[in-house]
Amino acid sequence: MKILRIILLIALLAAFIAFPFVFSDPATTTIAVFTLFFAAAAVGWNIFSGYTGYIALGHAVYFGIGAFLLPLTGLIAAAFAVPFGWIALRTRRHTFVVITIATFFIMQLMAYNLRAITQGSAGLSLPIPFDWSATFFNLPFYFVALAILLLAFGTSWWVRNSKYGLGLLAIRDDEDRALGLGVNTGPFKLIAFVLSAFFVGMVGGLHAYFNSSIFPPFAFDALFDVAIALMAFLGGMGTLFGPILGALILVPAQQYLTIISQSSGYNLIMYGVIFLVIILLLPEGIIPTISKRWNKWKATHNSSELTPVITTTPGQEDSIVVESSGKGIEQ
Question: Which of 29, 122, 176, 201 qualifies as a cystine partner to 138, CB 3.0-4.6 A?
Answer without folding.
Answer: 29
